[in-house]
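Write out the bound-state structure for nicotinamide-adenine-dinucleotide.
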Amino acid sequence: MKVCVLPGDGIGPEIVGEAVRVLEALRGDGIRLEMETALLGGCAVDAAGDPYPEETRRLARAADAVLLGAVGGPRYDTLPREQRPERGLLGIRKDLGLFANLRPAVLYPELANASSLKPEVVVGLDILIVRELTGDIYFGEPRGIETRGGERVGINTMIYSESEIRRIARVSFEAARKRSRRLCSVDKMNVLECTQLWRDVVTDEAKNHPDVELSHMLVDNAAMQLVRNPKQFDVMVTGNMFGDILSDEASMLTGSIGMLPSASLDEKGKGLYEPIHGSAPDIAGQGVANPLATILSTAMMLRYTFGQEAAAARVEGAVKQVLRQGLRTADIFEAGMKKVGTREMGDAVIAALRAAN
Ligand code: NAD
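---
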């Protein structure tokens, strides 16, 4: 079980450090991961002039899973586009064929006040959004800005092939099988032919998963329903652009960006696991970042790449335990709780893991 560890920039090294310690603490349970660290993002630009250097490419390709902190920072915002840290992220996703992005939005009862919605609307919220990650209007050709009839026009192309839709549909049906067997596919078939094909193919794929209840929803309604009654959803699947927007919306329902993990998978179960937040340059180096989203990303890694459901559940259980104990990093702090730093939070998760043994 080989893991390529990419701490990245900003708070990346701090939060990944804690996640690696959690993985090491699982050794006693027979989870033996071989971990190698490499550079991605701004730190790679500094060291090698390339946000996704050859050495990182080699290690990432050879690994079964990749654990990433976050990339980027204001220092890199003025670099030419091909040297920006985000290019490293897009590069590794494309290079590893990571087409399925899984983003859970879970609201822990202890953090119900962090949501901007009323507690009764969100307590118990547990949604999984599956976003297609390598197609759609973000990659479609032709694209660009050109002059037509004496003025500039901007062009992008929304395009999905049947095989691209079918493979993301399969991942979603499988994910729904591991949960409460309900899948909602989101499209805009009333206006966009591309998404009519999406609906047709997802509907056809449902025949292979008769135990999962499939429903469809138009994206505008889905955006509304997510804030009106989010608990009606279990697994949602959608294309790259709609998924970009809906998954951010869903994560905000929980109000705690430092708590949410994600997985991006290829066709064989290899995955890149990372928190959904960025590199938080405003708090980097201060030891105050919340490491829980990254620690929860390791649970997703154990579940989706290594098939270690029991270990994944133990990590998630340990996170719940530290929240119950009242430990909070600054981003989720409330009066009456105990404020802790990054390291102390990592220590507490490891102690909870050991105590549960
Ligand atoms: P951000 O997610 O880094 O930060 C937004 C706010 O949330 C900040 O106030 C930050 O302090 C806070 N925050 C984020 N993670 C936290 C954590 N674990 N603990 C405590 N607080 C946390 O978003 P941003 O400020 O828009 O972007 C900063 C940089 O990150 C930019 O360069 C951006 O391009 C990059 N970025 C990278 C990724 C990625 O690597 N996947 C994703 C988003 C943004």
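---
The domain at 100-260 is CATH 3.40.718.10 (Isopropylmalate Dehydrogenase).
Residues 163 and 201 are 9 Å apart (CA to CA).
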